[in-house]
Amino acid sequence: MFLPYSLVSCTNIANYYLKGTKINSNINVIDGDTVSFLENDKKKYIRLFGIDTPETFKNDNKKLAKFENYYAHQARIFLNHIIRNKELFYKFIKYDKYNRIIAILYYKTGKNEYTDAGLELVKNGYARVHYISDSPTDKYGVNEKNLIEYFYKLKKEENKAKMNLVNIWKHNQSKLGQQK
Q1: With the C-alpha atoms ordered 83, 58, 138, 124, is the resulting torsion angle positive or negative?
Q2: What confidence score (pLDDT) does residue 68 get?
């Protein structure tokens, strides 16, 4: 199902992102930046576009950083809380190397209002901006005007969370396993 642009308030997300696909099954929050759902009886995974949350485990036998597991669980709890019992939609961006859907996940918050789950994670200090760049030569660089605007929106909220030392930004990033 696609939402027509005219149905959506611009207060929470740019209109571009609101022409997406409705998720018609129960959703399972895997971690702070990954969810799964059923589509045509097939399990699909969405990796939230442009953000990264701390990890709950590492499959390469590396030890988790001091606060990494704690904030990984907090991010998962927060995402589960904000999307629970909501109408959910996603705006497809691309597939990643694991064949997950890279997408902007958003949910209905009012009659004509929708909120971007990834942006909320960034605002609340549970995620950092990652896997997106405004540099066309960067591996994660975007060149579509709307995606560049999205990058700047994420960075603006990340900078606010950093300035206010919200959640992950209270700590040295090496204690979260998130060195840049």
Answers
A1: positive
A2: 83
Select the more confidently predicted residue: 19 or 89: 89
Quote the pLDDT of residue 7.
Answer: 32
Provide the token pair at 9.
């308030």
Contact 119, 41 (CB under 8 A): no
Closest CA to 14 of 161, 144, 115: 115
pLDDT tens, residue by residue, 61-73: 567 677 788 999 9
Annotate the chain with three-state secondary structure: CCCCHHHCCCCCCCHHHHCCEEECCCEEEEECCEEEEEECCEEEEEEECCEECCCCCCCCCCCCCCCHHHHHHHHHHHHHHHHCCCCEEEEEEEECCCCCEEEEEEEEEECCEEEEHHHHHHHCCCCEECCCECCCCCCCECCCHHHHHHHHHHHHHHHHHHHCCCHHHHCCHHHHCCCC
Q: What is the CA radius of gyration of the chain?
A: 16
CA-based nearest residue to 122, from 75, 177, 62, 58:
75
- What class is the 5-122 domain? mainly beta
